[in-house]
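Wait, mind explaining this?

_____
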Amino acid sequence: MATNTESKPRPRARKWQEETRLGLVRRARRINRELADLYPDAHCELNFTSPFELLIATVLSAQTTDKRVNQTTPQLFAEYPGPEDLAAANPEDLEAILKPLGFFRSKTKSVMGLSKALVERFDGEVPGRLKDLVTLPGVGRKTANVVLGNAFGVPGITVDTHFGRLARRFAWTTSDDPVKVEQDVADLIPRKEWTILSHRMIWHGRRVCHSQRPACGACAIAHLCPSYGEGPTDAKTAATLVRDRSFA
């Protein structure tokens, strides 16, 4: 009986096992360049018009999709345009707006608490420093780097599930710890590229390099990937797995 080996992981080629540090740096930067060619329009897929809106949208995006957040925030920010408004919101009214996002009760508490902290500690302004942002309730390094990179122009690496998965598949890191992943990648890629690299990696993870059955046979950077073969390598099969625009 024939077996299908297309989706089984393949052993890494010897060239990857013997890669030098210099070779790793060069390969990482080449992947970044090729991702730039693949996704010239890569950007933050959360809609926002201010640092406050991006901060709130990023917090709300936990365990849901960017698309759903973008469908919810227009009403949210129309009724609560600033941290003072959100901090003073009626929880039941806010829950009704956030219900489509799931976990709406905890998210209501999170954004109200976050807004209250902004008002009380930062005069209602979103701080532009990592060390300040991470002191806010519900704000970790990932959220802080999203805000810094996209609202303030401060380079930052956003290690979400997609970024971490691709960084490990590219053998840029072996760690599951987001902070260690961030540090490992920062040592490979120039600082000025950190924010846009994050978008490129997330876009590629959403569209091609999925957690289950990555589209290896349709991946334009497969020749640079030590994990080639974790998904189908047949071009026709892999093409069916590619998502043109997934907000997963």
